[in-house]
From TrEMBL:
It is an enzyme of class 2 (transferase). Homodimer. The lineage of its organism: Bacteria, Bacillati, Bacillota, Clostridia, Halanaerobiales. HAMAP family: Acetate_kinase. One of its GO terms (biological process) is acetyl-CoA biosynthetic process. It comes from Orenia marismortui. This is Acetate kinase. The active site is at 148 (proton donor/acceptor). Keywords: ATP-binding, Cytoplasm, Kinase, Magnesium, Metal-binding, Nucleotide-binding, Transferase. It is found in: Cytoplasm. Its EC number is 2.7.2.1.
Length: 398
């Protein structure tokens, strides 16, 4: 069985074609700058061969046609015909409380994805567009939706509710939904495998740290709490998102700066975080370089990020009454050696100790805790595409 995994963004399409017999990636690629000057496709084969196609890609339909043409190309392709693709697994960011697992797409599912688009306006419309394009281009293939929010549907009511008038929850479904669920689920399960234990017997804190970042408390294999909320804005300091702030700041800044609700939302989502504090960049690598060169605001941004992650780890240890393992994943979590160590420093009271030499590694499954650490600490590269493919296969098999 061959499954195509699609992550359709507002101006991009990320894809992987996976052979589920051995879960090998036959090809992976990225179509970017859709509808923008300089659009292109980049693809890498299992052999390591890479190539690039530069051409005008006005919309996602043309982008997906290019993906299919590339995968079936006589010289550079990996399949002879599109009919070899049995199913397409789609990443969808927000499924609200409608979905607690992956589902085969039908008209009702598409309506629900559209209904929840107000909570993920940059993602759900693009995700839905990807589904519709693939339905048109691959009518024989089964379409499956995997939701970033689904893993977090196991959170208890007292954890996911906000202390607002209850009528707002009843009318508008205002509650904590979280994100990055596919990633948190994958790395937690991988950590349990590394420990040789049943995940249902473990308490794990997973740190998905990238330009978007979240921490999740995984208790007995289920999401118990997570740092992102109604939207991905809540929680950690991120590339351009502010994370947790006093809600009263919102009307205060709007009044003082004369901002509309849309402008205030843009400020918190696109102008804050690393970018807003440092004034340099939203990329942690740029911030780290500037901080090492003595830039005080870059140092402040880094310190704020480290402190916020550390605080969430501590709160989740308390919430779960202990922790067996901490996992770092995603761009920063897998590669930022110094930040990982700083986050874990001074947590020895909780039994968390990192070995500096073991920690000196990037993007590789590694146990980095010291020998006398009571808590295991892992680097585990995330693989959301494989989770989507596995869920898609499971639905196909059933």
């Amino acid at each position: 069985m061959k499954i195509l995994v699609i992550n359709s963004g507002s101006s991009s399409i990320k894809y992987q074609l996976i052979n589920m017999e051995d879960e090998s990636v036959l090809a992976k690629g990225l179509v970017e700058r859709i509808g923008i000057e300089g659009s292109r496709l980049e693809q890498e084969l299992s052999t390591g061969e890479e190539f690039e196609i530069k051409q005008d890609i006005p919309d996602h339909g043309v982008g997906m046609e290019l993906v299919i043409d590339t995968l079936t190309d006589e010289d550079k392709g990996v399949i002879s015909d599109v009919s070899e693709i049995n199913a397409v697994g789609h990443r969808v960011v927000q499924g609200g409380d409608s979905f607690d697992k992956s589902v085969i797409v039908d008209e009702k599912v598409k309506k629900e994805i559209d209904r929840w688009a107000s909570l993920a306006p940059l993602h759900n419309p693009a995700n839905l567009m990807g589904i519709k394009v693939c339905e048109k281009l691959m009518p024989e293939a089964t379409q499956v939706a995997t939701f970033d929010s689904a893993f977090h549907q196991s959170m208890p009511e007292d954890v996911y509710m906000y202390a607002l008038p209850y009528e707002l929850y009843e009318k508008h479904s205002i509650r904590r939904y979280g994100a990055h669920g596919t990633s948190h689920k994958f790395v937690a399960e991988q950590a349990a495998k590394e420990m040789g234990k049943d995940i249902e017997d473990l308490k794990i804190i997973t740190c998905h740290l990238g330009n978007g970042a979240s921490v999740t408390a995984v208790k007995n294999g289920k999401s118990y709490d997570t740092s992102m909320g109604l939207t991905p804005l809540e929680g950690l300091v991120m590339g351009t998102r502010c994370g947790d702030i006093d809600p009263a700041i919102v009307p205060f800044v709007m009044e003082k700066e004369g901002l509309s609700p849309q402008e205030m939302d843009h400020l918190m989502n696109k102008e804050s975080g690393f970018l807003g504090v440092s004034g340099i960049s939203s990329d942690s690598r740029d911030i780290g370089e500037a901080a090492s060169n003595g830039n005080k605001r870059a140092q402040l941004a880094t310190n704020m990020f480290v402190y916020r992650v550390k605080k969430y780890i501590g709160s989740y240890v308390a919430a779960m009454n202990g922790v067996d393992a901490i996992v770092f994943t995603a761009g920063i979590g897998e590669n930022a050696i110094d930040l990982r160590e700083r986050i874990c420093n001074d947590l020895d009271y909780l039994g968390i100790k990192v070995d500096s030499e073991r920690n000196n590694v990037r993007a590789k499954i590694t146990e980095i805790n010291a020998d006398d650490s009571k808590v295991k600490v892992f680097i585990i590269p995330t693989n959301e595409e494989l989770v989507i493919a596995r869920d898609t296969k499971l639905l196909m098999d059933n």
